Amino acid sequence: MSRSAHPAGPRHADVLTEGHYSAPAADLNVLDEKVWSRTVTRDADGALTVGGITVARLAEEFGTPAYFLDESDFRARCRAWSEAFGPDADVFYAGKAFLSRAVVRWLKEEGLNLDVCSGGELTTALDAGMPAERIAFHGNNKTVAEIERAVEAGIGRIVLDSFQEIVRVAHIAQRHGVRQRVQIRVTVGVEAHTHEFIATAHEDQKFGIALADGQAAEAVRRALSLDGLDLIGVHSHIGSQIFDMAGFEVSARRVVQLLAEIRDEHGVELPEIDLGGGLGIAYTSEDDPREPHEIAKALSDIVTRECESAKLRTPRISVEPGRAIVGPTAFTLYEVGTIKPLEGLRTYVSVDGGMSDNIRTALYDAEYSVALVSRASDAEPMLVRVVGKHCESGDIVVKDAFLPADLAPGDLIAVPATGAYCRSMASNYNHALRPPVVAVRDGEARVIVRRETEEDLLRLDVG
Ligand code: LLP
Fold first, then answer.
1. CB–CB of 395/322 below 8 Å?
2. Is 286 helix (H, G, I), strand (E, B) or coil?
3. Are strands 346-351 and 113-116 parallel, antiparallel or unpaired?
4. How far is the C-alpha of 151 from the C-alpha of 172, rounded, in Å?
5. Which end of the chain is least crowded, N or C, by CB within 10 Å?
6. Which amino acids are annotated catalytic?
């Protein structure tokens, strides 16, 4: 996922060969709009505000580290996706990126559907009042108990991921006297340009049923033959943090081709296709994500064209963006602790969180940016590595970035674009207390997921 590789100034000549970082912005006080949520600005004193509230006030009220989520930005992104795809398509927000009951309510109000992939996500969705028919259930190893719960709730669709699951879901549905709406997840053989662990449509991995060797066609045969299943379509998800639409185009073409083969063999035109999620966002100034309307147009054009040439009725399209909706809407606020300059290398800036609130840098070599947000500064840029407080040298939050050289303990710094896969992948490593998520909107801030406490830790430790 490394997209930036530009040299910095001569002060840092010894580390230039590593080349992970961009040149410092001309003025570190200027925020790059691309990586911050929409209501973020700097006030007259240079302090960052979100939803009209300064970070100093937020830090005082909610503490650090904490995730601050810009609710109006979240809602605007939901609307942008659903307007871009229009009434003839469905947008399912991928809950794995970040899910809470408040988020479920916002999704419901903004007319989105929801993709869940565990019993826990399903419970959260149902508890917050998402209608079951607007939920899709994913996963390569759903338990019988999870499938039972989903079927009992009247879930909108289950995305079948294996031959065993086809039979399992059919039996459970039959036992409940229903025909469960299902899709089959196929692996289309597209190698998306992203980190190996988050690319999912090549064949040598655990998700889906391969298209290439006829397995997907066989899965369709079996699903169509079982009374408990109502096969509504085919699903493909090719990976994450993808900028190039070419992978989606190949995937859409192959999925439509499968629909044509199904029509030829069974005389059935499946009414839906799901093209998954995976659209990239800007983590640094180097990233140039596409707008939802461009993505919607590219996908619907290719599906329409392929269907015309195969003489198929155009199926209803669904997509499952997670990161592209929630990722840009939040930042993590940290307080600066120890600052350690390493002569000729860089300065290590320790914060009060780390890999327990953002594992993505350690796990995927992900790139982030960072800014001093409690005040303005005219000091020279200094090359820094922002690290956490955990007992591991890989505990890095931002690998290479520039902060003003007068940075001091007690300053607040913020890492933008941490809305997706940070709180949802947070851990208690070193018995860290997972940070709260605070929603900010129109001058008001409220906790939507509270900070863990030491009592929470002790409560789980039953002695
Ligand atoms: N649909 C399916 C079937 C998926 O498996 C995923 C993500 C999505 C949709 C949503 O993808 P998104 O639009 O959010 O990229 N932990 C990794 C990402 C793993 C994504 C897994 N599946 C990360 O932090 O980058």
1. no
2. coil
3. unpaired
4. 8
5. C
6. 391
Residues 6+ away with beta carbon under 8 Å from 211: 186, 187, 188, 189, 254, 258
Query: Collapsing DSSP states into helix, strand and coil, what is residue 135?
Result: strand
**Residue 262 C-alpha to ligand 1 middle, in angstroms?**
28
Domains of the chain plus CATH, in order, are 12-70+328-460 (2.40.37.10), 138-321 (3.20.20.10)
Pocket test for ligand 1, best of 320, 325, 329 (most atoms within 8 A of CB): 320
User: From ligand 1's centre to the CA of 155, what distance in Å?
Assistant: 21
* Cα–ligand 1 centroid distance for 375 (angstroms): 35
The series of mean pLDDT values per 10 residues for the chain, 463 residues long, is 35 41 80 96 94 97 98 98 97 98 98 98 98 98 98 98 98 98 94 60 82 95 98 95 90 96 98 97 96 96 96 98 98 98 96 98 97 97 98 97 98 98 98 98 98 98 94
pTM for this prediction: 0.94
